[in-house]
Amino acid sequence: MNLIKTYFTRQLAKRGYPIDDICYSLNSCQGDGMAFYGDIDKEGLIRLADTLMNGTEKAAVKRAINKGATVTIERNSCATHYSHYNTMTVIAEACFGEELTDFEWSSFQSFEQALEEDVKATSQSLEADGYAIADAGSQYGALADKKRTFNTARFTLIIEELEDENFPVEYWDDSLIDDTIQAFIDKKQRYFLLKVSVVARNDETVLGESYLGGCTESHDSPSKNYGGYLRQMVSEAIHESRNFIESVSLAA
């Protein structure tokens, strides 16, 4: 699961929304955005009622939920071509379980209206966060101009930060995941795949390379040695270059 999908999933689950059907497109085009669909389970409904409702209406909504009232977020006609805040329709039903009182049903309908507003607001908020996360690891965003070159008479050493499409967080603890992604959203950190290359200056043949994924750097105090890994990576790229040159010489 990529970083943006991981963030969307975690944020929706915390709020109580379904996470099995999340769709998004973040290409700065018309119709872009994110959307989520599915049945809101009982635990999620209770959590959302606590967040969105107050007083006697909250209590009535919870009674309705316990009697079997349900809420589903369905695709509407706009979802055929797009995935954004306006492609979701909230549908509340009380067709299962015990019969609701008039007040419980009217409260549940108020809950449905509150959910409609919150679903759209959540979608728009997550869309904005998604763009910020993408920018923090983009060659057109935070990684722009993150390339250094060093020349000798025969070779060029290139150190560059590239987009890391598989930035790994699945084995991190929850607080580290949340804090790190929030730092990307707040534009305090960037993430990338670090690459070191040795290139022949005469014909630009790549002689040796070294890669390190899952890297992060602070914008406030950018490092030049990448936590001490750069020296090792340069050494690996040079060693690979020497082996390449030796193999070419032996084959000649």
Key attributes of the depicted protein:
42% helix; 252 residues; 25% strand; 6 helices
Brief write-up:
The protein is an alpha+beta fold and 252 residues long. Helices cover 42% and strands 25% of the residues.
What kind of assembly state do the chains in view correspond to? single chain
Which sequence of SSEs, written as H and E, runs from N to C?
HEEHHEEHEEHEEH
User: Structural class per helix/strand content?
Assistant: alpha+beta
Number of helices: 6
Low-confidence stretches: none
Q: Which descriptor suits the 3D outline? A: elongated
How much helicity do the residues have?
A: 40-55%
Terminus-to-terminus distance: 46 Å
The strands making up the biggest β-sheet line up spatially as 1-2-3-4
Count all strands and give the number. Answer: 8
Largest sheet: 4 strands, antiparallel
